[in-house]
Design brief:
- This protein has helices spanning about 1-30, 35-55, 55-60, 65-85, 95-100, 105-110, 110-125, 130-150, 155-185, 190-210.
- By secondary structure, the chain is mostly helical.
Length: about 210
């Protein structure tokens, strides 16, 4: 019975996550601020959050197999979506209470990738190295940006738009990572299933920032 629940949960999780990714693509390809953009954005936010929450059961049920990565991806998704939504409220003079607590998340998310990087260096085994290194770099970037905002919230409108867009894109890449690594097995190695979505996200961030500038 427990195994059946696991498979049903995993199927629902994958379907909902895939719908969320389609919503993100719709939002990215539509005119910013348009009705289509807002609708697609809401689809992405609610569906990806639901997908992240439903990932906790399989994460702990088969922790030895998928747990560490799945837990990181779920926490990162929730964190990125929340901070992306908050960025729309840039007119708020003071940081919200939740914003003061959120920098703890990327700090916690750093632990496992950093351990994996140090283990690779210590054992001289680099089969799994660049994926965790990229994840650690992403979480450090997010942490530094969060702390900088707590120090000085007086930023331009363009900054908040870029922050919103950047975090939505990285949440999208995390979702892709979860689908190709855990939801649907495409046969990619751990390294490729992490590196390719993150490099794709970086390319999208550069492209859209260029369009905004």
């Amino acid at each position: 019975m427990t195994e059946s629940i696991y498979h049903i949960n995993n199927l629902v999780h994958t379907i909902i996550g895939s719908i969320a990714l389609l919503g993100a693509l719709g939002a990215l390809m539509s005119v910013k601020g348009s009705a289509r953009h807002k609708t697609a954005g809401r689809v992405f936010v609610w569906f990806i959050l639901f997908s992240a929450v439903t990932s906790f059961y399989p994460t702990f049920y088969k922790f030895s197999e998928i747990g560490p990565l799945a837990l990181i991806l779920a926490m990162a998704t929730i964190y990125l979506v929340i901070t992306a939504v908050i960025a729309v409220r840039y007119q708020t003079a003071e940081p919200l209470m939740i914003e003061k607590c959120l920098p703890v998340v990327p700090l916690l998310l750093l632990i496992l990738p950093v351990i994996r990087v140090f283990l690779a260096i210590k054992t001289n085994n680099f089969d799994i190295f660049f994926g965790p290194l990229l994840l650690a770099s992403l979480f450090i970037y997010l942490l530094v940006q969060d702390l900088a905002i707590l120090v000085n919230r007086q930023r331009s409108r363009e900054f908040w738009i870029q922050r919103h867009l950047t975090r939505i894109i990285f949440a999208f890449s995390i979702g892709v990572m979860a689908v190709v690594r855990i939801g649907v097995n495409f046969g990619l190695t751990f390294e490729m299933s992490v590196i390719l979505p993150l490099l794709g996200a970086l390319g999208l961030v550069v492209f859209f920032r260029w369009r905004i500038a």
